[in-house]
From TrEMBL:
The protein's name in its UniProt record: Glutamine--fructose-6-phosphate aminotransferase [isomerizing]
This enzyme's EC code(s): 2.6.1.16
Record PANTHER family: GLUCOSAMINE--FRUCTOSE-6-PHOSPHATE AMINOTRANSFERASE, ISOMERIZING, GLUTAMINE--FRUCTOSE-6-PHOSPHATE TRANSAMINASE (ISOMERIZING)
Reaction catalyzed: D-fructose 6-phosphate + L-glutamine = D-glucosamine 6-phosphate + L-glutamate
Gene3D superfamilies: Glucose-6-phosphate isomerase like protein, domain 1, Glutamine Phosphoribosylpyrophosphate, subunit 1, domain 1
CDD domains: GFAT, SIS_GlmS_GlmD_1, SIS_GlmS_GlmD_2
Source species: Corynebacterium pollutisoli
Location of the Glutamine amidotransferase type-2 domain: 2-219
A Pfam match: GATase_6
One function term, GO molecular function aspect: glutamine-fructose-6-phosphate transaminase (isomerizing) activity
Functional summary from the UniProt entry: Catalyzes the first step in hexosamine metabolism, converting fructose-6P into glucosamine-6P using glutamine as a nitrogen source.
Active site location: 2 (nucleophile), 609 (for fru-6p isomerization activity)
């Protein structure tokens, strides 16, 4: 949710932290702030986007800094509630990501001790507790012991960075259920919610476990447990570079990411099929385990959930076992029936989403095998799963998911084929044939990117619409849901996706003159009945005055006369069609967003890239 940076080294901390926050702003952007520790603590913080902070920056010399970009949980986005928070004596500062669940009694304790709290946040208590622990009692004068004492009192999920004026040469940080990565430079050390914070300076990073504390100085880092005993981080090398985190000539990250989709799908497929067989990544789930699986549960949120709906269609069709799909936040609250023959497929771009993580934990307590589909190496969801299949979409900065979604669909299909292979429900030549059509997809997406101009023209003609409906049947239904979600996120207008067959059961009442309705049409070469039924649906809505925006396979003449706008996509097999049909809807959402006055499609209001609170 929030983005955090910490730095100890030789560079000026203020400018370094500002740059890092710029690259992490996608994580939260309702306020931001930086504290520089130069033997005294200076703080600057401001509500609103980072540009507001930049406008008020003064000179704050010092080579140790912590910074924060916020997605509000407790307390409105105001200057006071922005991080860093400074202790009552002005000697300590903290930044926090997560929720301190027991903040209310801690706050009361501070108030009773005569300390004035300056914000409505759950986070501020940590700064005052640190100063109290440092100023008096057993831990007096000992920064590390004071930080550990504070951590021992906190409940909830948090990444916390502590800095103290008496120790300008170090930062102490901790994590519980929220992300924190250490960057290892030469004569300088970094902390970040993700590697984008420091990728410009080093590719050497260290992953931490849950309930780890790390102390960084210029010369190195030390990892501890919350009880102060020694622990170890896991060093790794970052395999993407700064260019991947920058816009590369596009006017938004989202546009760049839409254009990166051919590569995202191609790279995700890479290496998973050779010698006539499908391979998953290394995992603790053996071929024998896979063979014994008799049901699948898919858990995910948002776009990842929509990709999971497609996993359901593919797995049930190819493997002939039941697949249930559940929004992750609902999964564990309804006592799903799982056992050791259940495979739980947990899909998450960030690998941090709290609801999905909790669903994974619940599934494991029930003895199910968990396979994560994830885009972020070393993140929590894959780490707690029995196996992971990484999507290789590269960093996705735009808050609205595009390339990660398509890469998830491709990865889900790999899982489906691996299951079909293990359970023998498809012959090797059938698997090879499906794989061949999957491998053709990146080139077809490439071709389809030219649709951008057509979509911009349609958005131009539609103007600032108030509401839009999206209809699909079969695998077109998740595409309709994803198209509607993109539009809600980006244009802030009402949009809904329906199975086209449901139209007559209620939603048709919404149709009125000029209402734009997107219809995703299945291939005429697939199930004939499905195609003809949707053609009838298009006629029904046209007859009631709607403007139809029809996404159909090239050469599908049956739909032409009923389409106000016809968007033709390359031919492919039915199950692969969502990998293509989604693309024009991504462009449409971005273009309508502009018509509706949202210029910053990378950072839609109220959202954050990864949702690390339940
Ligand atoms: O990181 P995750 O894939 O777990 O995130 C899940 C959703 O929060 C995410 O897909 C969200 O719905 C996107 N903003 C959709 O564009």
């Amino acid at each position: 949710m929030c983005g955090i940076v910490g730095y100890v080294g030789e560079r000026q901390g203020l400018s370094l932290a500002l740059e890092a926050l710029r690259r992490m702003e996608y994580r939260g952007y309702d306020s931001s702030g930086i504290a520089v520790n130069n033997g005294g603590i200076s703080v600057v913080k401001k509500a609103g986007k980072l540009a507001n902070l930049e406008a008020v920056l003064g000179d704050m010399p010092g080579t140790t800094a912590i910074g924060h970009t916020r997605w509000a949980t407790h307390g409105r986005p105001t200057d006071e509630n922005a991080h860093p928070h400074v202790s009552f004596d002005g000697r300590a500062a903290i930044v926090h990501n997560g929720i301190i669940e027991n903040f209310a009694p801690l706050r009361q304790e501070l108030v009773d001790a005569g300390i004035t709290l300056n914000s409505d946040t759950d986070s501020e208590v940590a700064a005052h507790l640190l100063a109290r622990a440092y100023n008096e009692g057993e831990t007096a004068g000992d920064f590390r012991a004071s930080a550990l004492a504070v951590l021992g009192r906190l409940e909830g999920a948090f990444t916390l960075l502590f800095t103290h004026a008496d120790h300008p040469d170090q930062i102490i940080a901790a994590r519980r259920s929220t992300p924190l990565i250490v960057g290892v430079g030469e004569g300088e050390m970094f902390l970040g919610s993700d590697v984008a914070a420091f990728i410009e300076y080093t590719k050497n990073a260290v992953e931490l476990d849950q309930d780890n504390v790390v102390v960084i100085t210029r010369d190195g880092y030390e990892v501890l447990n919350f009880d102060g005993t020694a622990a170890e981080g896991r060093p790794f090398t970052i395999d993407w570079d700064l260019a991947a985190a920058e816009k590369g000539g596009f006017d938004s990250f989202m546009m760049k990411e839409i254009h990166e989709q051919p590569a995202a799908v191609r790279d995700t497929l890479g290496g998973h099929f050779h010698d006539g067989r499908v391979f998953l990544d290394e995992s603790d789930i053996s071929e024998t385990d896979l063979k014994s699986i008799n049901q699948v549960f898919v858990v995910a949120c948002g776009s990842a959930y929509h990709s999971g709906l497609l996993a359901k269609y593919a797995i049930e069709h190819w493997v002939r076992i039941p697949v249930q799909i559940e929004v992750a936040s609902e999964f564990r609250y309804r006592d799903p029936v799982l056992d050791e023959r259940t495979l739980v497929l947990a899909i998450s771009q960030s690998g941090e989403t709290a609801d999905t993580l909790e669903a994974v934990r619940h599934a494991k307590t029930q003895g199910a095998k968990v396979l994560a589909v994830c885009n972020t190496n070393g993140s929590q969801i894959p780490r707690e799963s029995d196996a992971v299949l990484y999507t290789h979409a590269g960093p996705e900065i735009g808050v609205a998911s595009t390339k990660a979604f398509l890469a998830q669909v491709a990865a889900n299909y790999i899982v489906g084929l691996a299951l079909a292979q293990a359970k023998g429900t498809k012959y090797p030549d059938e698997i090879a044939e499906i794989w061949a059509s999957l491998e053709e997809i990146p080139a077809k997406i490439e071709e389809l990117l030219d649709v951008r101009e057509q979509m911009a023209g349609i958005a131009d003609e539609l103007g600032a619409v108030q509401t839009m409906l999206f209809l699909g049947r079969g695998v077109g239904f998740p595409v309709a849901l994803e198209g509607a979600l993109k539009l809600k996120e980006l244009a802030y207008i009402h949009a809904e996706g329906f199975p086209a067959g449901e139209l007559k059961h209620g939603p048709i009442a919404l149709i009125e003159d000029d209402l734009p309705v997107v219809v995703v049409v299945p291939s005429p070469r697939g199930v004939k009945l499905l195609h003809s039924k949707i053609v009838s649906n298009i006629q029904e809505i046209r007859a009631r005055g709607a403007q139809t925006i029809v996404i159909a396979e090239e050469g599908d003449e049956a739909v032409r006369e009923f389409a106000n706008y016809l968007i033709e996509i390359p031919a492919t097999s039915s199950i692969m069609q969502p990998l293509l049909a989604t693309v024009p809807l991504q462009f449409l959402a971005a273009d309508i967003a502009r018509e509706c006055g949202n210029e910053d499609i990378d950072k839609p209001r109220n959202l954050a890239k990864s949702v690390t609170v339940e």
